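Quick illustration, no need to memorize.
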Amino acid sequence: MCVLVIDGLGWDLLRAHPDEAPFLNSLSGGPLSAGLPATTATSLGSLSTGLPPGAHGLLGVQVAVPGTGRLLNCLRWQDELAEPAEFQPAPTVYERAARDGVATSYIALGLYRDTGLSRATTRGATHIPASGLGQLVAQAEYALRQGDRAYVTVYHADLDSTGHQFGCGSPHWRHQLRFMDLLAERIAAVLPSGAALYVTGDHGMTDPTVRVDADTVPELASGVAMLGGDARCRYVYTEPGAQDDVLDAWRGTLADQAWVLSREEAVAAGWFGPVVPALLPRIGDVVAVPFTDLAIVASSREPWLERMVGMHGSLVSAEQLVPLVMAVRD
C-alpha cells in the first residue's frame, strides 16, 4: 500500500479543477475532514497515529509548551523546548506496521528526515530521500517491492508552498496541480500487482483578502501573553486573570467574522476530538476561527504572514475537506 500525501490538496480545490487534475478526479473515493486546525503539523500527526488532534497533541503550527512561557513551532521545532517522542508519545502507524513485519518507508525531501516533526510523526519508518518528482516515483517503486508486505508514504509539499506564495486561485497553483496529478498517475503506474495507491491531503486552502492585525488593534492585544496557532485558527494565551476580558474583547471585535470560544467551549464542542487532559494547556485560553474571508495576522510576532496569499486552518469546508481517492493495480 502506498499513501501519497499532497500538502495543500483540498477536496473542493481538486473538484474545481478537473482539467488540471484529470487523473485524480477520475479515481474513486470522496472527502475526509482534516480536523482542527486544518494545518500540516496537525494533519500529519493524525495521519501518522490514527488519532484526532486532541489525542496526539500536535494541535497547530504554534502551541504553548506548558511551564515554559514559550510557543513551540511544530514545523520548525525548537528541540530545546520539547523532545518529539515525549511531546507526541502515541505509537505511529509505522511502528505498529513494522512490529507486524511490514516494510515501512517514508519518501520525501532529505531535509525532513531528522526534523522534530518527522521524529514525532514518522517513527518506525525508513526515510528514503527524494528531491524531485521522478525520484519520488522511482523511490516509491523501490520501496513497494521491499518484502511481501510494504506500507509506503510519499509526501510532497510544493502545492502548499505555491498556494502560500501566490494563492490557490493563481495560475501558479493550477500549474503545480498538473504536476501533482502527473505524480499520482506515475506512482499508480508502477504499483506492484495487488497494491493500492491512496491519495490524500492535509488541508485545503483559501485566499483571504481581509486582514486584522492582532498586534496593532488594542482590543485584540490587551491581556494577551502569547499568540499561537495561525491566521485561520488563533490560540490566544492570556495573562493571569484576563481570560474573560480577552474572550469578550475578541468576540466583540471579530463579531460576524469568526467563531470565538473559550478553550472549555471549544473542547466541549468537539473541535479537537476527545482531548487528553494533560494536553489541554496547549490549546489557547481563547480560540478564534474565522468563517469569513478574514485572516488574523500579527505583524510584530509573525511578519512572515504578511507575505502569504493562501492560508488554511479554519473549520470551513474549503480548508477542512481533503480527498481520499484510490487506484488499485490488479
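Residues 222 and 246 are 7 Å apart (CA to CA).
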